[in-house]
Structures are given as C-alpha cells and as structure tokens.
C-alpha cells in the first residue's frame, strides 16, 4: 500500500482515525457540561490509565465537544519545570480573554482581572503575565501568599465572570500526577469552593493510575468532588474496529488470522495498535492483509517501539534505577513486591527504597497497593528483558 495513504496515527496525543471504547467517558463529560449549564453541581473528572491508552486523546475530544457547546476551554500539561501558580495564572488569563474581548468585559470579568493581577504578583514578581490587563490589583484577594486560599479566590472570580457572560470554563489538564501534594491540595480546595458556589467551572484532568490515591491524600473529600474513570485496553471487538475501519475507508481489508495476531501482540493497547497498523501498512503489498504480512512486520514494529516509546523512558534513569526495573521485569509484567525485587539485586527493600521512590517520582512506576510497584508503561517488562541483561 502507498505510505502517503497510511491512515494510522502512532503519535503522542494524536487522535486515532476511529475513536473507540471511550463512549462512557464521553457521555459522562456531556452530562457534566449540561448539568453545569443548568446551574446544577456535578463531579469533575480525573481520567487515569497507563501510558499509551489514550488519556490525552480523550482530553482533546472533550475540548472539541466543550467548544462546540460554547464553553471556554483552556488546556495545559503539568511539568516539573514550570511553577504551578504561574501556570494557573496563564490559564486564567487565557480564559478571561476567551470569555470576551477586554472592551466587552462586564463587571465580574473586570473584577476577575484584578484578582488575577493580585494572584500573579503574589506567585511571581517579574510581571510578565499581567501585560495587557491594565487593571488595579484587587486588594485583599488572592494576595495572602497561601496557594490554596489565593487559587480559590482566583477560580471563584473566574467562575463568577463566566456566569455573568453566559458561559462556563473547562480546565483540561494533563499529567496531573506531577503536581506536588500542596499544589494538588490547593487545586482541589479551589474547585471545591466553585462547586459550593454552583459556578460554571470544572476541571477534567488526566494522569497515571496513582492519581486517585494522590488526590485522596491531598484532600479527604476528593472522592466526592471527582469521578476517577480508568481507561485501558480495548476489548477485542473494539481493537478490531480501530484497525479495520480506517483501512476499509481506503478499500483495504484484513484476514481474520492477521487481526488475531495483531491483537495477541498488542493486547488491545491503543498506541500499540496504531503503531502496528502504521508499520504493517507499509509492509503489506496488497489487500487483504494476511497473517504473513503481520509476521513480516513484527521485527520493524518492535524496533520502532524500542527505539522511541520504550527507550526514551529507560534513558531517563540512572544505572541503579535501570537495574531495579530490569529486576522487576524478570519477575513478570504484574505488580511486584519491593522485597522480591530487592532480593534479585541482593539488597534489602530498605536499601532499594530510595531508588524505587525516584522511579515513582519520574512517572515510570506506580504503587497499586502497599509494598507493590508496577510499570506505568504497558509491556515495559518485555522491552527490559530483550534489551538489558539482569
């Protein structure tokens, strides 16, 4: 088949040609927006899942649907290199200018701009984020220096401005698990206050599987403030649809054994399906795509995954961290006890505790239970075993 016709999209956060298996989450988001529009309260959403299951794609789909319904949307990705307070100031400023041009701001929007100026001056001193606001800081609001209180003032002011302008604001935030405990606590507290005031403002975030635990540790009422839908592998029928539908639009079919071979290798993980489909398209010479084509493409698929998706994560580690993950891989793909991993390294779990903690902090491992750790990347154990010696 011709490479420029290739319908598969194995890129970070790229929307696949057919979005399948996420109807429940999309419906929940629709309900969230509609209830807020009617003045009711509804739980915000924090989507969780492993790497490559489509969390970012889902956030993009939410953003499109919200905009279609007239909502103001602001997107962000949490990183450890950007101060959270300054980042929130950027997002609120963007939301204000989306609500209306400055010349058409109503009373509440002008007030929100003043609160924003107070907040920005409190969290940063260079003044770079207040350019163009041309308002006086709202004295006594968002200027305490306590992030939770100040962010609460800011989001309440933004929510009141949105309501006055007949709109609402959706924050779409990726990699939420990288927030520190005080930052996450502040964000949850601020959202809680907007719920109490029944303001049209909400957060839909995404993060790794430890996010519900982190949120609960930050604020005990987080489980009542958020829904925590977890997304993962597609069912066999959904995985087939993700492969077959884009090809059928171009007049290309799959033999059933070929589909079964791909599903067996990818285990239904969305990113792997897109990667296999993309490589296979260039290997197959004609329709229907046969199981022999799948076998011929396997080495190239694996090389592409190893060279990019897997290796970029492994190379972020120290030698000891890499050895720790290799020992985990030796024990299998499931969550492993810290003592068992340490024993393979001829160490105690206490000695290896700091190494394990650093891997969790880097987003390479998560803790599904006490004393347990698992890879945040599907099939990472396979990669470690075929690439590194124990």
What can you tell me about this protein's structure?
With about 400 residues, the chain is of the alpha/beta class. Helix 6 links the parallel strand 3 and strand 4. Helix 3 runs parallel beside helix 5. The chain has 3 domains: about 200 residues, Rossmann fold (3-Layer(aba) Sandwich); about 80 residues, Helicase, Ruva Protein, domain 3, CATH 1.10.8; about 70 residues, Arc Repressor Mutant, subunit A. The chain starts with about 20 loop residues before the first helix and ends with a helix.
Q: What would you say about this model in short?
A:
This protein has 390 residues and is α/β, with parallel strands linked by helices. The protein has helices at residues 23-37, 55-68, 84-99, 107-123, 147-164, 181-196, 211-218, 222-225, 236-248, 256-266, 270-283, 291-314, 319-331, 338-344, 349-361, 380-387, and strands spanning 44-48, 72-77, 169-174, 201-207, 226-227, 336-337, 365-366, 372-375. The chain contains 16 helices and eight strands.
Give the biggest sheet.
5 strands, parallel
By helix and strand content, what is the structural category? alpha/beta
Order of helices and strands: HEHEHHHEHEHHEHHHHHEHHEEH
CATH architecture of the largest domain: 3-Layer(aba) Sandwich
Number of helices in the DSSP assignment: 16
Strands, total number: 8
How do the helices and strands line up, and which of them pair or pack?
Elements: H1 23-37, E1 44-48, H2 55-68, E2 72-77, H3 84-99, H4 107-123, H5 147-164, E3 169-174, H6 181-196, E4 201-207, H7 211-218, H8 222-225, E5 226-227, H9 236-248, H10 256-266, H11 270-283, H12 291-314, H13 319-331, E6 336-337, H14 338-344, H15 349-361, E7 365-366, E8 372-375, H16 380-387
Parallel strand pairs: 1-4, 1-5, 2-3, 3-4
Antiparallel strand pairs: 6-8, 7-8
């Amino acid at each position: 088949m011709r490479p420029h016709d290739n319908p598969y999209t194995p890129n970070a956060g790229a929307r696949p040609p057919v979005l399948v298996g996420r109807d429940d989450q999309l419906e929940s988001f629709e309900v969230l927006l509609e209830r807020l529009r009617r003045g009711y309260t509804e739980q915000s959403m924090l989507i969780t899942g492993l790497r490559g299951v489509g969390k970012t794609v889902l956030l993009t789909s939410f953003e499109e649907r919200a905009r279609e319904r007239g909502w103001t949307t602001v997107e962000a990705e949490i990183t450890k290199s950007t101060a959270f307070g300054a980042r929130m100031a950027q997002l609120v400023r963007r939301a204000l200018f989306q609500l209306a041009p400055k010349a058409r701001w109503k009373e509440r929007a002008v007030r929100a701009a003043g609160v924003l100026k107070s907040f920005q001056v409190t969290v940063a001193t260079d003044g770079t984020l207040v350019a163009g606001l041309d308002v006086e800081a709202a004295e006594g609001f968002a200027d305490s220096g306590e992030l939770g209180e100040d962010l609460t003032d800011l989001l309440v002011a933004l929510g009141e401005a949105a309501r006055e302008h007949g709109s609402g604001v959706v924050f779409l935030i990726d990699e939420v698990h990288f927030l520190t405990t005080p930052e996450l606590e502040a964000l949850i507290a601020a959202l809680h206050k907007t719920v109490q005031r029944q303001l049209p403002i909400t957060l839909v975030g995404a993060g790794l599987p430890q996010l519900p635990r982190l949120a609960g540790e930050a604020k005990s009422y987080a489980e009542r403030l958020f829904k925590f839908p977890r997304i993962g592998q597609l069912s066999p029928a959904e995985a087939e649809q993700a492969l077959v539908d884009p090809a059928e639009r171009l007049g290309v079919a799959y033999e059933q054994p070929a589909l079964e071979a791909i599903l067996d290798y990818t285990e239904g993980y969305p990113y792997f399906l897109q990667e296999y489909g993309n490589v296979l398209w260039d290997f197959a010479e004609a329709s229907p795509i046969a199981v022999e084509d799948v076998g011929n493409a396997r080495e190239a698929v694996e090389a592409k995954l190893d060279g990019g998706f897997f290796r970029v994560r492994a190379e972020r580690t120290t030698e000891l961290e890499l050895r720790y993950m290799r020992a985990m891989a030796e024990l299998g793909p499931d969550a492993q006890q810290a003592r068992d991993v340490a024993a393979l390294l001829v160490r105690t779990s206490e000695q290896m505790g700091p190494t394990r903690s650093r891997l969790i902090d880097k987003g390479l491992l998560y803790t599904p239970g006490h004393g347990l750790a698992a890879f945040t990347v599907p099939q990472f154990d396979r990669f470690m075993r075929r690439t590194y010696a124990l």
